[in-house]
Amino acid sequence: GQQVMQIPQYQHVQEGEDFTTYCNSSTTLSNIQWYKQRPGGHPVFLIQLVKSGEVKKQKRLTFQFGEAKKNSSLHITATQTTDVGTYFCWVGYKLSFGAGTTVTVRA
Amino acid sequence: GAVVSQHPSWVICKSGTSVKIECRSLDFQATTMFWYRQFPKQSLMLMATSNEGSKATYEQGVEKDKFLINHASLTLSTLTVTSAHPEDSSFYICSARAEGLAGGASKYNEQFFGPGTRLTVL
Looking at CA atoms only, how far is residue B44 from chain A in angstroms? Predict the structure, then answer.
């Protein structure tokens, strides 16, 4: 069946640094969505990618969909304390979320 | 817009009792609602997909007789944990999606999540 892996599971970042989290699928995807869950909160939709090679930006967040539509990445520049949380990718209609990347920031 | 509420936000019950959790879309009609459970520091695991007016579709390994789902209207889905046991203690989150609606809440068919229900079974 369709599987999605998300790496890394944990990311501890110095404030001001950049980092990237990846979502990899074993099969070609029709689209992929990214969500963010703050500690103690619920997931909130960030973005959807549909086209091969698509790149979308939201301020310091850059989302990319791979050419083969099997992987996606989220890159955050100049990390801030407000970026703390867990970032999940979601693929497919019946598949659960990826394992998520939990981000902590040291000032 | 696109607000989903969940009630109760937390519940403590004795082993063997049943607990009902409500999920409501407050300002849009949800053609599809999803029920997830999340253990500490883990991802959300999809339990079932609920469509208004039809039977829920359960994921493999989820007991449909234990986790009863009812989606009676386009704004309400309920999850009943029957004969709850301590291993059922978890964070249950619902989400709602509005599909195929012109100018609807879900522009990208994204899910709008409720705040979750923390269930503790003693």
Answer: 6
3-state secondary structure of B46: strand
Q: What is the pLDDT of residue B1?
A: 62
Asked if B108's CB is within 8 angstroms of A48's CB, the reply is yes
**Per residue in A60-77, pLDDT tens?**
999 999 999 999 999 999
Give CA separation, B5 vs B39, B75, B77, B95, in Å. 20, 10, 11, 9
The owner of tokens 């989606």 is B71
What's the pLDDT tens digit per position in B7-50?
999 999 999 999 999 999 998 888 889 999 998 888 889 999 98
B99/A contact by beta carbon, under 8 A:
no
Cβ <8 Å between A42 and B113: yes
Query: What secondary structure does DSSP assign to B70-84, as a single string?
Result: EEEETTEEEEEE-S-
CA B9 to chain centre: 12
A5 touches chain B (CB under 8 A): no
Q: Which residue in chain A has the smallest CA separation from B92?
A: A42
Size of interface A-B (CB pairs under 8 A): 45
* Cβ(A38)–Cβ(A27) below 8 Å: no
The pLDDT tens digits of the residues spanning B53-97 come to: 888 999 999 999 999 999 888 899 999 999 999 999 999 999 998
